[in-house]
What we know:
Distance between the termini: 73 Å
Structural class: alpha+beta
Number of helices: 3
Radius of gyration: 21 Å
Strand order of the largest sheet: 1-2-3-5-4
Order of helices and strands: HHEEEEEHEEEE
Oligomer: single chain
Amino acid sequence: MTRYVSSCFITLVVLFLWRVEDIADACRCLPQHPQQAFCNAEIVIRAKVVGKKAVSNAIKYDIEQIKMFKGCDQVIHAIFTYTTSCSVTLEINKEYLFTGKLKTGRMSITLCGYNPPWEDLSAAQKNSLTHRYQSGCDCKIIHCTSLPCPISTSDTCLWTYLGTDNGQNLACIKRQDGSCAWYKGIGLPKK
């Protein structure tokens, strides 16, 4: 009986170690506010996906750029997502907001980025792309999952999931006194 138990134990260990590589490759992303994604990205564009092709260790999506919100002066014609557990799957003939990095002239995106379909963005989010997010890139957005969450500095906005839109429609912008506050789109943020 002990030989049977021992062989079962060894089999379980081998199976576990075999799966550790898959677990280690899992994509882990912390939730980020749309403004954080905007500020952390090198390039932010609105584009329509028009084609897809596998190239080397990546998927190349051909796009038609509609608008550049942040980035370089060049028009982006393709977006790459590398074939890892963090690769992004996009639909052909659909418009997206892409936040990504520029490496050797190629825009790349990952699952940890913020790349929602354009139609899923609210009017407030679309407005903030051109009018609010950039002005708040000097502010820090602290993600809080349970209260209380103390703010240690005045250049911080506390982001909680309280409320119906989870704060997705707010922008954290710098006020005249140098402090940061959430902006709802009506007047300037108050102290």
